[in-house]
Write a structure and sequence with these properties.
With 235 residues, the protein is mainly beta. The chain folds into two domains: 101 residues, RlpA-like domain (Barwin-like endoglucanases), CATH 2.40.40; 86 residues, Immunoglobulin-like. Helices cover 5% and strands 34% of the residues. The strands form three sheets. Strands 1-5-2-4-3-6 form a six-stranded mixed β-barrel. It starts with 43 loop residues before the first strand and ends in a 5-residue tail after the last strand.
Length: 235
């Protein structure tokens, strides 16, 4: 029997170099992923409507679209949901509605939505409807703002963060001339209080969103209670 003959190795040509330069890497999107934002409540429940002037326990200005809601305790989560935007889906459509108040009498996983938003989502002018929701970035333009509470002074200072795209988890203060950051306590009216005050100078705020993103803002020396100070950052 003849011996097998070894086959000749076949040379493979290397791939031709492309004359087209590689595309630069695409920048990561800045919008937070839905999974990064907390779900307030079970994410589904019932909605009814109410008439409101836009004011509520969160002490915030109503959003531009005027779509606002008052949430049950398990959605509100001890003020943690104040200012959060929920994309709510119902039989008639979907709309983004901002949490502005606590509904003391609402059953778990229920909410009352102002009439224009209720009609857009549920499609009724009365009654209730089944809805589902998820937390989304608020459709606000521009930067955050810092409002100093009217009763604030050098020894007790409270601030509120307005026009944030994301719900907030924490706020810390650094007083002028100091290195330490002091965590502020959130009160039921959605202000963040420094028990020992901001002192005689200005101060910096480190603001942490519910998904962990952070920004910092400064309020200059000479601040006054009841004033709103425009910020320079946004989530």
């Amino acid at each position: 029997m003849p011996a097998p003959v070894a086959s000749e190795p076949v040379a493979v040509a290397p791939p031709a170099a492309s004359s087209t330069p590689a595309a630069p890497p695409t920048a990561a999107p800045q919008e937070p992923a839905a999974s990064e934002l907390p779900t307030f409540g079970a994410g589904k429940g019932t909605a009814s409507f109410y008439n409101t002037d836009g004011k509520g326990g969160c002490s915030l200005n109503p959003p531009t679209n005027r779509y606002i809601l008052s949430a049950s305790k398990n959605i509100f989560q001890n003020v943690q949901a104040c200012g959060a935007c929920l994309e709510i889906k119902g039989e008639a459509g979907t709309a983004v509605v901002q949490v502005m108040d606590l509904c003391f009498g609402c059953a778990e996983n229920s909410m009352v939505i102002n009439k224009p938003a209720f009609e857009a989502i549920v499609g009724k002018q009365s009654g209730t409807g089944d809805v589902s929701w998820k937390t989304v970035s608020c459709p606000v333009e521009g930067k955050v703002a810092v409002r100093v509470k009217e009763s604030s002074d050098r020894s007790w200072t409270a601030v509120q963060i307005r026009d944030s795209k994301l719900p907030l988890k924490a706020v810390s203060m650094q007083r002028e001339g100091e290195n330490d950051w002091v965590e502020l306590k959130r009160s039921p009216d959605n202000y963040w209080a420094a028990a020992k005050g901001a002192g005689d100078g200005g101060f910096r705020l480190r603001i942490t969103a519910a998904n962990g993103q952070q920004i910092e803002e400064s309020v200059a020396r000479g601040w006054k209670g009841g004033k709103v100070y425009p910020g320079s950052n946004q989530f």
